[in-house]
UniProtKB/TrEMBL annotation:
The keyword Nucleotide-binding does not apply. Homodimer. Pathway: Amino-acid biosynthesis; L-lysine biosynthesis via DAP pathway; DL-2,6-diaminopimelate from LL-2,6-diaminopimelate: step 1/1. It is found in: Cytoplasm. GO terms for molecular function: diaminopimelate epimerase activity. Substrate binds at residues 15, 79, 89-90, 165, 198, 222-223, 232-233. Belongs to the diaminopimelate epimerase family. This is Diaminopimelate epimerase. Its main location: cytoplasm. The keyword Cytoplasm applies. It comes from Agromyces ramosus. Its EC number is 5.1.1.7.
Length: 293
């Protein structure tokens, strides 16, 4: 039986999403339906789908509420191929904008919205140019797999970083090498991480640090979505990796240039250890109705 899906299309630095609300948690889409929605020729077209569910009406939402009773809404994130992800850095800003636009949440000056995700509760605040999400603690995880990519002459070592979801960051020599990559092909990791990984390729700007801010360029091949114009958690992982390689004198504020725009990354001390925050724009582009089989 077919049904009509009322959705909003949103994007953050060109990473685009189809958002819909399902407050009661009764309308989970199947992986096949997600892939159909994200299809750029036969569907709406998007890098992922975000379902807004009241945390109280979802098992994963119950643990979000236990962590923070203010996390009334849960960001149920799905990649374009119909697989789930724990976190989406661009998506959470667009989701915050969607909650405000729908009247599901309010954001007073100086306050934050608590959002449930599979990686835990994350807080989003408003900034001059959009929103900032505190993505919490990060960790080195996944070792240093060798990465092969189309048009890269030899395999390069990557660095595994978990920011709620898994990433492998690879440093390239220069802009020419970065621009020459063909990310229509999925990079091959050795060893292959069990849960897969988003793979980011980075080059430092010249100079690397300007007025106390580190600057890098990044391209990404996302797990479950392929090459995208931007990946927020990927930008965060890239800045963390470059800081790790650069050593103790490296800054804690970073500006990451991605094909779809610029993202800010800020590392700061919190009560439970070092946190990392991601800032950037969030736009709602249009509303629509899609009939799904
Ligand atoms: N584009 C997102 C990340 C989306 C999930 C990712 N593909 C995964 O499978 O972990 C971002 O902005 O962080």
């Amino acid at each position: 039986m077919s049904f009509d899906l009322r959705f909003t299309k949103g994007q953050g630095t060109g990473n685009d999403f189809v958002l819909f609300s399902d407050a009661e948690g009764e309308n989970e889409l199947t992986p096949t339906q997600i892939a159909a929605v994200c299809d750029r020729r036969f569907g709406v077209g998007a890098d992922g789908v975000i379902r807004a569910v009241r945390s109280a009406n979802l098992d994963a939402g119950a643990s979000a509420l236990a962590e923070d009773p203010q996390a009334a809404w849960f960001m149920d994130y799905w990649n374009a191929d119909g697989t789930v992800s724990e976190m989406c850095g661009n998506g959470i800003r667009v989701f915050a904008k969607y909650l405000l636009d729908q009247g599901f949440a309010e954001l007073h000056a100086g306050a934050s919205i608590a959002i449930g995700t599979r990686a835990g509760v994350r807080r989003v605040t408003r900034t001059k140019g959009g929103f900032e999400a505190d993505l919490g603690r990060w960790r080195l995880a996944g070792g240093e797999p060798l990465v092969r990519a189309k048009q890269l002459p030899v395999a390069r070592p990557g660095l595994g970083i978990d920011v709620g979801n898994p990433h492998v960051v690879v440093a390239l020599a220069d802009d020419e090498e970065l621009d020459g990559l063909d990310l229509a092909y999925q990079p091959i990791l050795d060893p292959v991480p069990q849960a897969g990984a988003n793979v980011e390729f980075v080059v430092p700007a010249d100079p690397l640090v300007e007025e106390g801010v580190g600057r890098i360029r990044m391209r990404v091949h996302e797990r479950g979505s392929g090459e995208t114009l931007s990946c927020g958690t990927g930008a965060v992982a890239s800045a963390l990796a470059v800081r790790h390689w650069a050593g103790a004198s490296a800054p804690s504020d970073w500006r990451v240039q991605v094909p779809g725009g610029v993202l800010g990354v800020r590392m700061f001390a919190a009560d439970d250890g070092e946190h990392v925050a991601l800032s950037g724009p969030a736009e709602l582009v249009f509303d629509g109705v899609l009939t799904l089989a």
